[in-house]
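Predict structure. Chain length: 141.
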Amino acid sequence: MSAADAKPQTINLEDLPLSQLHKIKAQLEEEMDGLTTAFSQMKQAQATFRECTNCIDALTPDSQDKTILVPLTSSLYVPGKLSNIDSVVVDIGTGYYVEKPKADAVKYYNSKMDYVQDNAKTIQDTIEQKQASYRGLLEIM
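Prediction complete.
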């Protein structure tokens, strides 16, 4: 019989000793903690992308030639003027930046938000499954 033909083996948790159940419980807790952290990071990324689209939407014709503060570091700024409100520079990751028209930048961020939302939903479903397993384990213990 090959590994592809092997069927998953089920184990009755009620037959396991208490020490084994404690190890399974600790493993489930660790997995849920990691998944919860990942879910929080997904939601934070989604909020960041939403903030980017809001900032792009705030670039109106009235914004042309307005004085702004341009960050050089997280606590150092220099004054600047908005000379081009028709395009923005988008951070596409790993130190790469691309200039895009505002509409394309909004599409880019919306697609990133959709991608993150789909992943967050998958993680949330997995967390719920782990929580159900955890509750079942606690009932047996």
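Summary: The longest strand covers residues 87-93.
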